[in-house]
Amino acid sequence: MAKKSKRMSIKEAVQLINDGDMITFSGFTIWRRPMAIVYEIVRQRKRNLHLIEVNSGTHGEILIGAGCVKVLETCWIGHELYGKVGANAARKLKSGELIVEDYSHVHMIMRFAAGAMGVPYLPTRASLGTDILNPEYDVLGKHGLRDGSNPRIPRRKFEFLTDPFFGEQGDIIHVPAARPNVCIAHVQQVGEEGTVRVYGQRYSDAEAIKAADKVIVVAEEIVPEEVIRQEPTANLIPHYLVDAIIEQPWGAHPTGCFGYYEVDGKFIRDFYSKTKTQEGFDAWAEEWILKVNSFDEYLYKIGFRRLDLLRANSSYKYSTRVKRGA
């Protein structure tokens, strides 16, 4: 019997995401973010999403600015050197439209590792003595969201315990597993049946993908499955963990994709400067998302010359034409 194809369009893939879902992403801040999907989430006007990730970035800022997100759990959000602060997240937090729960970087890694292993929590000593572990800053608890009615939200932000095995002195922190409904990943290559290959930094992609119930993979290239399996140690995720695959070249723009193209810093800096107010964000989204019917149309609007400037040299794996520094 023929295997069911996992290929679908970007619009079809976004229809797999429900309002209120807990979602997470591949990549890190401004690298390998699934922007083609993010723009389509905004077009389809998804609401009350619960974002959970190690470090958020430009993609998170767009979803928050568009009013798609109700809860954000992360350790940081911004655009690195192209805009240090997540201005949209800050604005929505101040207005009460966004609930933000703060964990440390290590805590978030541990939470996704627990989710990937299928255990309810993992122990750590990270952030002992900091206000991240101050019960007064349990924001989800303050909003009454830890009442057990949502199986994705743990009843406690953390728990202090003592070592039951060696009797070591001092507190051990247990942090709860991250259990997202959906992980959306942008990668360099995926096989026709879903085997995932990532070049360069892998960040916490494996943990994020394995922790999620449903996995959507957008790839620069869909390649023959029998070819990608010839070197199994180079692959990150087996095919059976992936539910949907989409081929979309340049699908991470304006974030970068190692070996394929650079971060479009000028584009991100422009987004950051123009979206510090809601009026500014609305105008930006109208121009770059809502009046653009597809990601291909978006790339046409970006223009060949700009994309060619960002394109990585196949030997160096980075663009030799992008000007860096002062």
Automatic annotation (TrEMBL):
Query: What domain of life does the UniProt record list for this protein's source?
Result: Bacteria
Instruction: Give a GO molecular function annotation for the protein.
Output: glutaconate CoA-transferase activity
The yes or no answer to whether the keyword Transferase is present is yes
SUPFAM superfamilies from the xrefs? NagB/RpiA/CoA transferase-like (SSF100950)
What are the record keywords, sorted?
Transferase
Q: Which SMART domains match?
A: CoA_trans
Instruction: Read off the InterPro entries from this record.
Output: CoA_trans_fam_I, NagB/RpiA_transferase-like
The UniProt entry's sequence similarity note says: Belongs to the 3-oxoacid CoA-transferase subunit B family.
The protein, known as: Glutaconate CoA-transferase
Q: What is the lineage of its organism?
A: Bacteria, Bacillati, Bacillota, Clostridia, Eubacteriales
